[in-house]
Sequence to fold (523 residues):
Amino acid sequence: MKRLLGVALGILTAIGGFVDIGDLVTNAVVGSRFGLSLIWVVAVGVVGICVFANMSGRVAAASGRATFEVIRERLGPRAGLANLSASFLINLMTVTAEIGGIALALQLASSVNYLLWIPLAAVAVWLVIWRVKFSIMENVTGLLGLTLIVFAVALFLLKPDWGNLASQAIPAVPAEETGATYWYFAIALFGAAMTPYEVFFFSSGAVEEGWKIKDLIQSRINVLVGFPLGGLLSVAIAGCAAVVLLPAGISVTSLSQVILPVAEGAGKLGLAVVLLGIVAATFGAALETTLSSGYTLAQFFGWSWGKFRAPAQAARFHLAMIICLLVGLGVLATGVDPVLVTEYSVVFSAVALPLTYLPILIVANDPQYMGRHVNGRGVNVVAMIYLVVILVASLAAIPLMIVTGAGA
Amino acid sequence: MILGDLLGTPVHDDDGVRLGRVADARFVVDGAPHRLMADARLLGLVVSPHSWSSFMGYERNSLTQPWPLPQLLRWRHRGSFFVMWEDIAVLGDRSVRLRPGYTAYSPALDRKGQE
Fold:
């Protein structure tokens, strides 16, 4: 019974934890501009993150090493440092976007300018990282994030023409968009679903919670059930935008437009629930990304790390996270639009993805680390297909960004 | 000189023929014992004729999965070899020179991770 509860809790937090500011903004932007014609990318991204998280979780459980410990060991210091710099900077960008997201959601709830909420949000994130136990932190934000199901509820309440909506789901470039913007947003959506921090966090979390081989089944269920259901939330967000915003000719540029369909479909109560959900989801993701920045640095440089240690025992790890939060605060204090930061962060996430994916794929095949838990043939075939997809997305992202003027 | 400066340095034999670049250094942990770990001793250098980019560990083992990555990386580092510290004559800033009659070992390790 306890085991069953554990599995249920794991799945629920995986669903609630799947959506972050990147998914919210990108899915809404895509829904409002392309309808459901890009929805296949969410499926591609969800399968990809399942493959990636499954491998990195297995590496962490079998070898006791988290992602960046593996990268440092396997790539050596030179290639490892280039890798760290890119991954770390993009993660920092995501931290900034998530904190901005918390502040924007609080602005919508309170009408107090988001700039005033930013320091509060950052301090709250820091306090939770400093004080709250890892499992409580993960479960509470994950479960509260589940309230984003209101997007699915709102989609039903909007009573869309389901046949028409389903016919939109065929991949095709809408008349008023170009092929380049279509593929640019395909990469953005892919990057939003497969953000690298999810994997840093997932593998480091496995070490934090002391996973052993016998816990792998549970983690596999969490991933293979939780992430696809989380992906359905993404689809619901895009669906809401496609039903309300696309016909009205509104292309999403702010968080208030993301939740507009929920207000229309589910009224004031829905609005209250969606704001709670967004705050929980962005707060949870802010915790995960901030921890990830600490994890990546500490694992690369060999500092002691982890929330299972008292902060005094992992001083550099905690100091690094404080500095990251301050940098994020500084960037947001310039008044840059957090939604814009988010849009860039998901694309750069796609650019940096091969840097972490490749070493994990290699180590997951190495019996010296993995014993008999190396990748099976089937996993390797899928993983190699994804390596190609990830490489193509990574290489195409920046040229497409330039050609399309970042999707304008 | 730090190890980072050594990586990528061209390697020549005694006649000045260029053999490749330093791709990696290999240590054995058999020095003076300490509480946690013994001191490391530099056993020798891995020299690669074509590229000094990362081997991603494939020079050490005979793994073939996931196809075709190991095959590609091995091809990129074809002809790479390991020279013992005793066979190195000069360790300069610009180049490393080997002694005449040096022995080029295979960079692979056996299954226990030993030379």
About this structure: The domain at 2-404 of chain A is CATH 1.20.1740.10 (Amino acid/polyamine transporter I). The interface with chain B takes residues 74-79, 358-359, 361-362, 365-368, 374-375, 380, 383-384 of chain A (CB under 8 Å). Chain A is about 80% helix and 0% strand.
